[in-house]
Design a protein that fits this description.
This protein is of the alpha+beta class. About 50% of the residues lie in helices and about 15% in strands. The protein has one domain (about 1-115). It has helices at about 25-35, 40-50, 55-65, 80-90, 90-105, 105-115, and strands at about 1-10, 15-20, 70, 80. It has a four-stranded antiparallel sheet. Strand 3 (about 70) and strand 4 (about 80) form a beta hairpin.
């Protein structure tokens, strides 16, 4: 799980510095990997090698949307639903995060590494029949 403090100014002109949480659990990551033609990790590597900025910018939007959530008070749940996501997307914090990821390879790499669970690559492959 990645806890990222984002500085932003709200629509009343008030400056905030708040923590936001992002995470992909092993089941989510495995499902995404299996649903992606050629595999998610392979797709990410190709985008990086080809420096396909347009495709990478689109991918960051998808990654943020899949990873953003709110921790329950007791820490047992990481709540991800459309209401929670919509509330985040409608803030300048979202805009600032997105702009940071599309403009900095270092920030993008750190974000991706922070949200992906530590899982051996051979555990994220399609089962053989």
């Amino acid at each position: 799980m990645l806890k990222k403090t984002i500085d932003y100014t709200d629509y009343n002109g008030v400056t905030h510095s708040e923590p936001f949480y992002f995470n992909l659990n092993k089941a989510e990551l495995t499902q995404w990997e299996l649903e992606t033609t050629g595999g998610l990790m392979n797709l990410l590597e190709i985008m990086i090698v080809e420096k396909n900025r347009k495709q990478m910018a689109e991918m960051f939007k998808v990654v943020i949307n899949k990873a953003y959530g709110v921790k329950s008070i007791d820490g047992k749940q990481f709540i991800k639903n459309q209401t929670v996501l919509d509330a985040f997307i409608q803030t300048e914090a979202y805009s600032n995060l997105y702009m940071e990821l599309v403009s900095s390879d270092e920030a993008a790499s750190g974000f991706i590494k922070g949200i992906i669970p530590q899982m051996p690559q051979d555990k994220i492959t399609a089962p053989s029949n």
